[in-house]
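Chapter review: from sequence to fold.
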Amino acid sequence: MILDKRIPLRYWVSLVALDVTIVSAFSLGIYFVSKHIIQLVIPINLGAFLGTAIALLLSFKLSQSYDRWWEARKIWGAIVNDSRTLVLQLKGFLSTSGHATLSAMAYRQMAWCYALGKHLRKENPLEGLDTFLSEEEVHRLKKHQNVPLALLDHQGQDLQQLHQAGAINDFHQIQLDSTLLRLCESMGKAERIKGTYFPKTYRQTLKLFIYIFLVMLSMSLTGLRGFIEVPLLVMISIPFFLLERIAFNMQDPFNSQPNDTAMTSIARNIEINIKQLLAEEEFPEPLSPERFYMM
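The token string follows.
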């Protein structure tokens, strides 16, 4: 997640470097042909109409991409709330004799948050889980394709055992099951965003029309004196390519990019909150920003 900090120029350049290079190349080509071979001139109104249409398409794509990014952030906000709620419920419902189960389920919830983040980023979800889980449980998780789902299943099994042992009553079980259900729903919503790709043809068509617009504009500017048309065209192209690239990066909020939802940072905050709820004296510090963004 990009923070409210100064964003280095090299980041902006990296977003549009290739496209700007292509624009510079064909702009120089059109300039050379117009000056030395044949005059290439088209009315500027034609390019203006196409530019207006592209601006509307870009605004639509930005809106849709931001909706996906914001929904992802709301999902993880719900995960924060439900993770805290689960531990608070267990603390309130279990007697002191159930402290071992409380600790095990609380640590499993921390593990679930980290595993879900890695699962959505298509990384190894088992990495680092031995910090929170027993060696036996980590070994059992290796058999599962969806590790976060398996962890929720283990939570449900522990709740069932608590109910059978009389440690919690029917009302307590219903409340705890409801919290697990909300966590499972949040996971499913995040997986839906990850698994639903923005139509690739939309981006390809949009970029094609941006290039067509710039070619038409380059031909419309050939009448300008001097060499001004090439840098002018480059300056005009930068906002179009920047907005398109930003929209592209935001449409997948779980892709290990600066625009990514800060899942690792959120999971660390959940870990800190839960360990403090357990009255533990040692807990980690919040993650520090990686330059101008958090992961």
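Two observations follow directly from the output. DSSP finds nine helices and no strands in the chain. The chain has one domain: 44-277.
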